Amino acid sequence: xxxxLFLLGFTLHNLEEALWLPQWxxxxxxxxxxxxxxxxxxxxxxxxxxxxxxxxxxxxxxSSSSFSKYVYLGFIxxxxxxxxxxxxxATVVLKKYAPGTITGILLNAPLGIYILTRGINGTDxxxxxxxxxxxxxxxxxxxxxxxxxxxxxxxx
Length: 156
Description:
By secondary structure, the chain is mostly helical. It contains 5 helices and no strands. The protein has one domain. α1 runs antiparallel to α4. The protein is globular and about 45 Å long.
């Protein structure tokens, strides 16, 4: 049940971001749109819920559906990539800690890499996971922008 442990790390990562990223975004204006506490918290709650839904659909359908497995592993892949870009890179470039970096490095990356290495069987599956990850990354990036707008509209 390493997947549930990953969910815990993912949740702690998002909680760390929710607490400190809005203030940090004022420092990173050159690279990151400034966000208010309300708009970011709204977005991170929805993104966290999506992570839970993707995980639970994997538990329910992965044994009978390769598509379900690839979607879940694509999600894990983008969460591992998220540790490097933007968190680690932002910390180095800005010379200021980017919220989410520590939980990403200590929890999301090692647990995610373990899940990926255990879950991918061969180069064909690796290709499907990469494709799934790219599609999910695009969806998440577009969604996050809309969630910021919705959070601002609903709560500011």
